[in-house]
Every structure is written in C-alpha cells, then in structure tokens.
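Fold this: Major facilitator superfamily (MFS) profile domain-containing protein
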Amino acid sequence: MVEGGVVKAADKTEFTECWKVTWKTPYIMRLAFSAGIGGLLFGYDTGVISGALLYIKEDFEAVGRNTFLQELIVSTCVLGAIFGAAIGGFCSDSLGRRKTILVADFLFFVGAIVMAVAPHPWIIIVGRFLVGLGVGMASMTAPLYISEASPARIRGALVSMNGLMITGGQFLAYLINLAFTRAPGTWRWMLGVAGTPALIQFVLMLSLPESPRWLYRANRVDEARTILARIYHPDEVEIEINALKESVQNEKEIEDSIGTTTLSKVKGAFKDPVVRRGLYAGITVQVAQQFVGINTVMYYSPTIVQFAGFASKSVALALSLVTSGLNALGSIISMLFVDRYGRRKLMIISMFGIITCLVVLAIVFQQASIHSPGISQVESAHFGANSTCPSYFSNVNKNKWDCMSCLKAQCSFCSNAENQVSLFTPRPVFGQF
C-alpha cells in the first residue's frame, strides 16, 4: 500500500512523463530497474525449465521414463512460490522491502547453484523449491518497493514495467536455452545461469535505500525524508511527508479497528461490501488467468513442439521463441492500449484468444492421434522383431530405446503386428506416443 492507498494504472501521458522524470532523475530509474529484476527472475524461471527439461530427461533415465518426476520438477517451483509469497508479505512488513528482496535473491541464487550441480533428480527438485521461495518473495515485494520508492505521478508506469520484465525474462530464458543446446552440461548451464539475475539484483540492492514508506512507518522519519529528497523536487518533499503521515495514520486506524493479524484483516475485508466486491473480482481474475492453461504451454512449449514432429531440441527451442516473443509483445500492447480501451475489454479479448488457441491445440492433437497408426506404449518404448526403424537396429542399447530418441519432422518409422510399415515410408508421428 502506498500514499493514498492505491496504485493507479498508467496511461499514455504518464509513460511520457515517466520518460521525462527518469531522464532528469536517473536515481528513480535505478530504483525501479533494480527492484524490477524480481519480475525478470520470475519470467526467466518460467521459461528456462521448459528447455532444460529436454536434456534432464536424457541425463536421468528415471526422469525420461517417469512423467510424475517431470511434472514434479516443473511444479515444485510453483509450490515454493506459494510459500514464498506468503512469507514475503510478513518479511516485507517486519524486515523491510529491501532486506526481503535481498533474502529472495539469496534463495534464488542458492537454488540455481543446487540445480546446476545436482547429481540426482530429487536434488533438482530441492533446488526448484528454493528458487520458488525466492521467486514468490521477489514477485510480491519488488512491485511494492517500486510503488513506494517512486513519484506518485509516474508510479503506475514504473509498476507496469514489472509485467514487461516477467515476459521479457521468459523470452530471455528461451534465448539462453537455445545458446546452450550444444554446450557440455546443457541443462546445468541453463539452470545455473538463472542465478545471474539474482546476483546482479543482490549487488544493486545493497547500494539502494529502504522504502521511504516503510521507514516512516517504523518511525525513522529523518531517513525517509532523506530518501524522498533524492526522488522529489525540494519543494515537494514536505508534501510527500505529509501524505505519508496521513496514509500511515489511516492505515493504523483501520488496523486498530479490525486487528493486525492476517485472519482479522481478511475478516475485515469481507465485512466491507465495497472491499468484498473488489476482492471477489481480483481473486476471480487471478484464478481465471492461472487456470486457463497458458502456464502449461509456457512450461512445456518445447516438449509440445517435439510431439508435433520436430524432435530436434534446438529446433524445438527455436520455435518456442515464437510463443515467448508473442507473450512479451502482448505485454507491450496491453501497456499501450489499456487506458484507451479499458481493462475489462482487453481482459475479455485476451481470455477469449487464449481459450480459443488452447481449444484448437487440443483438437489438432486429438485428431492427429485418432488418425495415426495405433502403436501401444510398450511397442513405442521397445520395438519388436518386425521393426523397420533403421536407427533402432543400429542402436547398441536397444533396451533403452524409445521413439523420441530419433524422431524427426521428416522421419518416423514404426510398426506392429497389425500395421506393417515399409522401410523409408514416412508415417504420422502422433500415434507413437
């Protein structure tokens, strides 16, 4: 919460004002950029595991043959983020926004190193959970720090940049995955490099001050005034101090009436009809955004491309760049048009587009599976004596063979007793899985 209690959305004029203000006062952009790396961390982690998983399955046979382990490696980070966001709220109030971000960076960095050197899949899962804790804390605290350490007239524009950093981080992750496709260690480098943004943010945050609002609430008024003097024009500092005073007093009065515990605050929110309606709307939008299924595409994009017939990992990662690139482009478009066309209209259009594309994706894969040769899971994992796949016959260790080992967009050989396939006769790839 900031002065006045709200962070309004940015319009076109505010983005222009943001450019002018930050050009004259680079310190403001330094604050926003340093904290905004938290969004980059979240986006990078979302994208990097999708490519790394392709190579983890190669190095660990248990992961390649156990979809539960694959899903656990991906989802453990989200589980950690749930706890991280909850812990982040408490830490940001008790320790301060800056220290909470530093703790998040430490967790993210340690988690990235643990994953990079993991000798066993379960160690990767532990690292993913640590990364999730860091991501959850940073994604909750970073926007709060930006809103409280930026001028009111450009606050919306700077906070909006956090969303762009998330989608930009996803795009960056796919680029880095593609860069390490031929490097020794592949997935270890992909996951290890994830600690770099956390290390950069940790170093930058060490030289930055605490949120002026948190300092004022902690009765450190002089420190808050010193920071505001670096952000605002000298004539505006006292105005902001008075705004802080009024806002903090109002907040304390509300806490005195409903209590300071999380449970009492939730009860107080539901008692107020205006707040309750806003809470319902906010929760519904967030839940709908997650359950629509876009995260599945983002986490498994290269795998989906492989099942479409492009087995080359580098090709799958390159084609996945289209998805992450359009995702980042969508963030920019929403920032430019949200105030011209309204939040509700853009949200409905985007949700309709997501649902439509996911339904089309499901139908395409279903139809491809129906019209492909009927190959059982056992036959797919281990061909019989009537196999016509030349790569299978030339493979030394046939017990560990599966279709994905040689699947190419232009090549797919397999057969069973009911469906003989001649050598060098390409067939649809979907029936193999």
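Residues 1-9, 408-433 have pLDDT under 50 and may be disordered. The longest helix spans residues 26-59.
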